[in-house]
Write a structure and sequence with these properties.
The protein is of the alpha/beta class. It is built from ten helices and eleven strands. Strands 1, 2, 3, 4, 5 and 11 form a six-stranded mixed β-sheet that branches. Strands 8-7-9-6-10 form a five-stranded mixed β-sheet, with helices on both faces. It is globular, with a radius of gyration of 18 Å.
């Protein structure tokens, strides 16, 4: 059996899927055609029903549930993991000014709109272009995700608001960032087997940590190993192994809130 599998090139995803896609574990006769793209592209592919198994932003989940089911393993939830709103150092941002967002369907966009429902001057960019857009003056502020939360201060940017902390203070639940979905058309027993393989892949990665696999380094956009480990430590946790009741409750809350937000 062969399925298409898509996830981001960020260290948390490559760390999670390394053992699976590189067959460091027994994949039980299942093979994968692997595609690595930024999360907004993954969201768009899921909307188009393009990929069998994919990482997506939880912000897009409500509009793809007719075609996909959320898996319990492989996602990113937690506390202290949310996106940050940043500006040039000492600059102040107000809702009338421009802001770069890492994709219209991303959870980052949803969290931003929860905090700033009146913001209108939004520019959507690939996540790794946002810091430079702020520094160049193309936009007044940016919402950064992934490894950029570890490097923005070194580049001369300052935090205006931790959107994840805003969510946590408001709701006191984990922040649902991204999850793994599988096509509803795939046999349920096979879907359960794939979910188990993802969990085994994470367990393998944890067993060998803090070793950084070559697969992670290859796609890490020239990050040093310290930043890679910070990234992994932040985004790969017990919720990645299994969402659990509180993880599912957080996702359902996000979906509920998304219905009341006007983009």
């Amino acid at each position: 059996m062969r399925f298409s599998l898509a996830f981001s090139p960020c260290p948390n995803d490559t760390f999670i899927f390394d053992a699976l896609v590189n067959k460091k574990i027994d994949t039980e006769g299942i093979d994968f055609d692997v595609h690595l793209e930024d999360v907004q592209t993954l969201n768009e592919w899921a909307i188009a029903d393009k990929i069998d198994i994919s990482k997506i932003s939880y912000g897009v989940l409500p509009i793809i549930l007719n075609n996909y089911t959320l898996l319990n393993s492989g996602g990113a939830l937690g506390k202290g993991v949310g996106p940050l709103l940043v500006t040039k150092k000492y600059a102040k941002w107000t809702v009338e000014k421009t802001v770069a967002i890492p994709g219209i369907n991303t959870t980052a966009h949803l969290l931003f709109m929860l905090a700033f429902p009146d913001a209108k001057n939004k520019v959507f960019k690939v996540f790794n272009e946002i810091e430079d857009a702020v520094l160049s003056g193309e936009v007044d502020a940016g919402v950064i995700i992934h490894e950029n939360r570890f490097t923005y201060e070194q580049k001369g940017l300052s935090k205006q608001l931790d959107l994840g902390a805003y969510w946590e203070e408001k709701l006191n639940i984990p922040i649902p960032l991204g999850g793994i979905v599988i096509k509803n058309s795939i046999n349920k027993n096979i879907a359960t087997k794939i979910e188990g393989l993802i969990r085994k892949s994470i367990e393998y990665a944890f067993e060998h940590y803090p070793f950084i696999p070559d697969f992670v380094k290859l796609h890490s956009q020239e990050m040093n190993e310290e930043v890679m480990r910070k990234h992994i430590n932040l985004y790969v946790n017990e919720y990645s192994l299994n969402l659990g009741n509180d993880g599912i409750a957080a996702i359902n809350k996000l979906i509920s809130i998304s219905k009341s937000i006007k983009y």
